[in-house]
Amino acid sequence: MSDPELAVVEFLLTTQVYSERRELDPDDLPPAYRAAFWSDGEIERPLSPTASAATEATGLERPWEAISGLMFTDRDDFSGTLQFTDRDMAEEWYLKRTDADRLMDNPALAAEYGDEFEDVDYELARERNRPARADRALIDSLLNEAFDEEEEEEGMLDLVDVRAPEEVEMTMDHLVLTADQEAEIHKIVKAIEHRDYLADIGLREIGKLLFVGPPGTGKTSVARALAHDLDLPFVEVKLSMITSQYLGETAKNVEKTFEVAKRLSPCILFMDEFDFVAKTRSSDEHAAIKRAVNTLLKSIDEVSLIQDDVLLIGATNHPDQLDAAVWRRFDEIVNFPKPDRNMRADILRVVTQEMDIVDFEPQELAEITEGLTGSDLRLVLREAVLDALTEERTTLTQQDLRDAVADFEERDNLKNMDMIEGDHDALVAGGDISGAGDSEAASDGGEASGASRPSSGGTPDGGHDHDH
User: Fold this and answer.
1) What CATH number belongs to 136-335?
2) For the domain bounded by 341-416, which CATH number is listed?
3) Could you give the residue range(s) of every CATH 1.10.8.60 domain in the chain?
4) Does the pLDDT of residue 139 top 80, yes or no?
5) 0.85 exceeded by the pTM?
6) Which of 206, 264, 278, 309 pairs as cysteine with 321 (C-beta 3.0–4.6 A)?
């Protein structure tokens, strides 16, 4: 017996069980199986177990070859369909070779054969299975229904980025959170799990979060990780694109954005650059743009986690620019400050899990990286890896990391130089414009003008990631 044989026989049994048991729905099929049978947003019965469908579901290039030696299998050469010549013999063969863990990954078979194994629980298998709403094929089908014309779709794609959970690589395990952030996220997860109860008791104004903090502190990463871990489609709105000349009727497109989120619900609707709203409200922007922003605020009022199954997350780097009208639309504010020393050490441990580092001391590195964000630390480690590769090394040392920190600080000083004040000479190779003395003066001036990184002052950090 080989794994390919077992995989194809399991696929054929699943197609038959699902076709026969009408009480089963797409959530009872493993995601890879669903991918083989989606058609216009539906999975129609009976399932046709063709060789091509078997390939997509199992990953095997030649599924018929895998089972052609079994006594109870056959293939229809005309249709390409794989089939059993003796279903009872196929079931007996399969049940002798499968186990509880395998059945728990396939709710349809857990429903059919769960009584044969002690540790198989159909309801738990179904709960563990990624739901159909998270499939890219279903998301695309729903999006196609939402757009009336091709031009409308192109305009919307400028404003909205929709990702299936499987397309989000970030998970909550990749993040280092503060206790406050963990508590807020735990609350919202519980609210999602108990939406029906909250609706029954009339608590509907919940599920609108505002993430605030400097760039690189993980606001977007936490939102995406939630989508991945909760198996929810991730709808990201690019608020700065509202002013794009290609969007035409901006207010209409803003309304369409919320329609899309409701159509894909349950989902996460993430709106970055939320300070853009405040800037527009307080400026002399064109009336059409102001109308779009007012439409946005009204749409926020009308969307609900409890009624619409849409978790709304706004994010801003500049909370000081938001007015009261914006603040009151969010029921929870989650702070994302820069990490303190201990959190920087934790971030470094998470980021370097797959790296080979001699004498690695994250606490020491945390001491010399005050003021750096999770994103900054990722850049430091990237440079250390690339520098080592130039020396044909894949094993890093603690000194490599120290050097990378120093290089990062130097580049950051250059980035923050005040060119208007006349420190141009510091950017000339060798500093050799008007003599060595001038060169040294220019160099000193360049260092003096480089803004030092702000101190975190021991403030706990929030949501710092290693891929932001």
Assistant:
1) 3.40.50.300
2) 1.10.8.60
3) 341-416
4) yes
5) no
6) 278
